[in-house]
Amino acid sequence: METRMGESSSNGIMKVMVAIDESDTSFYALRWTLEHVLNHLHRQGTTLTDPDEAVGESTAMVTIVHAQQPFQPFVYPAGPVVYPSTTVIEAVTKAQNENTASLLTRALHMCKERMVKAETLILKGDPKEAICQTADDLHVDLLVVGSRGLSSLKRAFLGSVSDYCAHHVHCPILIVRPPKETKK
After folding, report:
1. Which has the closest alpha carbon to 58: 67, 48, 50, 73?
2. pLDDT in tens, 5-23
3. What global pTM score does this model have?
4. Which residues belong to any copy of the UspA domain (predicted)?
């Protein structure tokens, strides 16, 4: 069964998942999705006046996800393995949680400005795998990720979340590239 833009394969509400991280490109992808994809869906549906009452009226539900890399509590210097203290591990974990909360708050604020109902999820693990697994588990109709525009050489060595997701997720994916900056 083919699903076109604005149609949903389940209960009439299109499930859109947007993955964000600290980069401006991921927030550009969220903004682009809110302006283009969801505006299109809302023009087909009803106008919303209160994002808290959007479920049941809206034609789309947005799930914003952020994947936290697991903290590697050991270091391999030239010599023996060095383990950080419990205080260091707790400090890193606290900083990760505060960073995640800040990112998700910023994303929810963007959705609220557009009168779009959104929920958030914090994923644990390798972002590439966690995003694909969650998209499959939630049966989303569309996954949206930003593209940092890595060269093919960097993508080969570093890997790319968007490239990995494009090859491994089982739903349509939209990779949003930011516009090229104009040189003066």
Report:
1. 48
2. 444 455 678 899 999 999 9
3. 0.78
4. 14-177
